[in-house]
Design goal:
Elements lengths: L9 E6 L4 H10 L5 E8 L19 H4 L9 E7 L6 H21 L6 E5 L1 H15 L3 E4 L4 H8 L4 H9 L2 E3 L6 H4 L5
Parallel strand pairs: 1-2, 1-4, 2-3, 4-5, 5-6
Length: about 190
C-alpha cells in the first residue's frame, strides 16, 4: 500500500508506557500518519515513590512511563490515570476501568481515529478490542510480554485475554516462537 494512504489518517495507540520500545516505533510511524494519539495507562499511586523510598513503584511513576523528549509534532500523548491496588483481583477488573478512562479522554478531547494499535494484551489490548467494537475501527495488537508472562496469559482462565486475541485484526509478536500458539485465536 502506498505510504501516502495514511497521511490523512489518525492512529490511536493504547499502551502502558511511552518510552523506547513503544516510543521508537511510534516516532517512525509519525512520518506516515497525519496524527497519532498515544494514551498511556498510569496509576497515580506509583508517584509516591518520588517522595518515599518505595523502589517497587519507581518503574511505574509517570515520569518513568512517559518520555516526551524529541516527540514529533503530530504525536499527542495523553495519560490515563486509574487508581488501583496492585492485587490480582484488582488487576483482573482493570480492563473495564481502563476502557472507561480511555473513553473519557476520547470524549473530552473529541479524538477521532482510523486505526488502533495496542501494545500489551492486558489491559491495553483489551481496551483496543472494546474500542474496535464500539467504533468499528481496525485494531492491531503487539504482544510485548516476556515469555513467562505470555505463557501465564495463554494458560489463564481470564476471558478478557482470549477476547482480546480473537478481536485483533492483526497480532504481532516480537518472540516468533510463540506465533503458533496464537494462531488458534487469530488467523
Amino acid at each position: 500500500m502506498d505510504k501516502l494512504y495514511f497521511k490523512n489518517k489518525t492512529l490511536l495507540v493504547i499502551t502502558h508506557n511511552y518510552t523506547s520500545f513503544v516510543k521508537d516505533p511510534v516516532e517512525v510511524l509519525s512520518k506516515y500518519f497525519g496524527q497519532i494519539y498515544v494514551l498511556v495507562r498510569h496509576n497515580p499511586i506509583a508517584d509516591i515513590s518520588e517522595y518515599l523510598p518505595i523502589n517497587y513503584l519507581k518503574p511505574f511513576k509517570k515520569s518513568t512511563l512517559v518520555d516526551l523528549r524529541n516527540k514529533s509534532d503530530n504525536i499527542s500523548v495523553f495519560v490515563n490515570n486509574i487508581i488501583y491496588a496492585p492485587t490480582d483481583s484488582q488487576y483482573r477488573k482493570l480492563g473495564d476501568r481502563h476502557f472507561k478512562a480511555v473513553e473519557k479522554v476520547l470524549k473530552k478531547h473529541n479524538l477521532k481515529f482510523d486505526l488502533i494499535h495496542a501494545h500489551f494484551t492486558w489491559t491495553a489490548g483489551y481496551v483496543a478490542a472494546k474500542l474496535k467494537e464500539t467504533f468499528n475501527v481496525p485494531f492491531i495488537l503487539t504482544i510485548h510480554e516476556n515469555k513467562v508472562w505470555f505463557l501465564k496469559e495463554y494458560n489463564s482462565d481470564q476471558e478478557g485475554i482470549y477476547y482480546t486475541w480473537k478481536s485483533a485484526d492483526t497480532i504481532t509478536r516480537p518472540n516468533h516462537a510463540d506465533v503458533p500458539l496464537l494462531k488458534k485465536f487469530n488467523e
